[in-house]
Amino acid sequence: MKLLSKRKNLYAIIVFLVILTGVIIWLVIFSLDNNIITPYKDGTQVGYVYIGGRTSSQAENDLANAIRKWRNNSYIVDGERKEGPMIALSYQNDSYRLYLDHTKFSFDIERSIQRVQDGRQMDYNARINIIYVSVEEGYIENLIRSDKYIKFTDFDYEALEREVIKYISFLFKEIYIDIGPFIDETVSQENYLHQVKINYADASHFVNYKFNYYLGDVIEIKPKTQFSLADLLIEAFKEKPFNEVVYTEGKRTEIYNDIISNYFTQNELSIFATGIFKTILNTNFRNIERHYSSALPDIFKPQSDYIGYEALVELNYAFEETVKNDPVTSQPATYITGITFSTIKDLTFYNPNRHSYYIRVTNTVENGENYLVFSLYGPPFVNEYGYKRSAGDYNSTIEYEIVTKVGASRNGYHTKLYRTVKYYNNPDLTFIFDEFEYIYMPK
Q1: Buried b vs exposed e over 129-148: b needs ≥16 C-beta within 10 Å?
Q2: Backbone angles phi and psi of 320, in degrees to 5
Q3: In the sheet that 357-366 helps form, which strands lie side by side, from edge to edge?
Q4: How far is the C-alpha of 138 from the C-alpha of 433, rounded, in Å?
Q5: What secondary structure does DSSP assign to 120-177, as a single string?
């Protein structure tokens, strides 16, 4: 019995030693694999913190020190100390600073080090060797909405928050983000800014049978893009089918004019271009090309309302003709089978913003007068844009001068149009950033 008892004790000791050896081997392997004993390879980084040659515990300390330095960053603004990192938001070619509350951000140091791939540098998109950061729910949205300069606050806040967290994980003390791409375009299209009304007797017909047919219900001014009114119209015209017409001898001009009237007549082009131009005067869009007539067209009434605001667009219409047998008479006949368009004079401008704007064209009746209404939609402008019409000098109180000539059937006019801006951070001063001069000679 004593011998059996000794053997059982020996077996127990052997089993214990085997288990202990296994545990020790596992701990050694785990330590080696997780750099508890052995250092990380040269070139290893977590975020932008270099941990090559450091063990995991040393790496955790290095990361904690880097985060501590990031939290202790501060700026002196107008004599006041601002704690934490700075974020500069770029919006409509303007930028302004916000200061982040570093206590709203939490860093998971242990997780960041545990997931380090030895010998690798950070690849944020692949989620390799990143610093794991979270932010207090709703903090970024509240920060944006509470800023007095950001007038438009409908952003994709989840995407914007991810962008902020990305740069925080880099431990950047200064973060620069263009918030234009994060605008909610669906809301933007319904955000009314301002409108322009153009007196036009055939406004209802133009909207229902011309504008809506060729252009739908809205014109999109795309971001960072030059807009051409002539190109817009030509592309819209080309998309519609052409119904061939039999040419009648002696009525070529009449037939051509009938066909052109199905598109935009010259009067309609003038009214339409002028409405678009006057609509963008209250924006930061940059004018590139604009024309005006030698004499203000009679279509503009009262003329005094349109001196200096006219925009002239002209298109060339070229007709394609084919001779073929008439299906009724079986005799050769000339058919007008197509039409091509080209630009003579255009209205172009550039949208410098990172988001689209939209112009809707409708019609209304006021005091028995028909009007075309051009309404602009999109994110509000940070700065206040305007314009002033005057007789030559900006400080003049006279809007335009009448130019007369003996024997002339109509007066001429002289005026200048100034585009102005009041910057959000200096609203008491008005700056001129564009100038146009108009001389309509008397006839």
Answers
A1: bbbbbebeeebbeebbeeee
A2: -100, 130
A3: 192-199, 369-377, 357-366, 219-221
A4: 39
A5: PPPBTTTTBSPPPEEE-TTHHHHHHHT-SS-----B-HHHHHHHHHHHHHTT-SEEEE
Q: How confident is the model at residue 31 (pLDDT cuts 50, 70, 90)?
A: very low
pLDDT of amino acid 6: 58
The secondary element (H helix, E strand) that includes residue 335 is strand 332-345
Q: How far is CA 194 from the centre of its chain?
A: 18
The secondary structure of residue 295, as a DSSP letter, is: S
Q: How far apart are CA 396 and CA 401, in angstroms?
A: 11
* CA-based nearest residue to 148, from 425, 442, 428: 425
| Phi then psi dihedrals of residue 392, to 5 deg | 90, -75
DSSP line for 347-375: -EEEE-SSS-EEEEEEEEEETTEEEEEEE
Contact indicator for 135, 162 with CB cutoff of 8 Å = no
CB distance 175 to 73 below 8 Å: no
Contact present, 121 and 130 (Cβ < 8 Å)? no
CB 372 within 8 A of CB 361: yes
Q: Which helix (H) or strand (E) holds 312?
A: none
Instruction: Quickly list DSSP for 46-115.
Output: ETTEE-TT--HHHHHHHHHHHHHHHHT-EEEETTEEEES-EEEEEETTEEEEEE--GGGEEE-HHHHHHT
d(CA 166, CA 153): 21
Q: Give the number of C-alpha atoms closer than 13 A to the C-alpha of residue 393, restricted to the C-beta side.
A: 4
- Which tokens hold the place of 257? 């004019």
Measured N-to-C along each axis, helices 266-280 and 229-239 cross at an angle, to the nearest 10 degrees, of 130
- What's the confidence (pLDDT) of residue 182? 86
Two structure tokens written together for 95: 């930028």
Higher-pLDDT residue of 164, 16: 164
Peptide bond into 302 cis (omega under 30): yes
225-228 β-sheet, strand order = 225-228, 348-351, 286-289
Question: Model-level pTM?
Answer: 0.77
Q: What is the pLDDT, as a whole number, of residue 5?
A: 60
Structure tokens at 14: 């052997």
Q: What CA–CA distance (Å, rounded) separates 63 from 74?
A: 20
Q: Measure the CA–CA gap between 417 and 435, rounded to whole angstroms.
A: 6
* CB-CB contact of 435 with 402 (8 Å): no
User: pLDDT tens-digit profile of 365-382?
Assistant: 999 999 999 999 998 888
Q: How far apart are CA 147 and CA 164, in angstroms?
A: 16
Give first-to-last CA distance, the chain, whole Å: 137
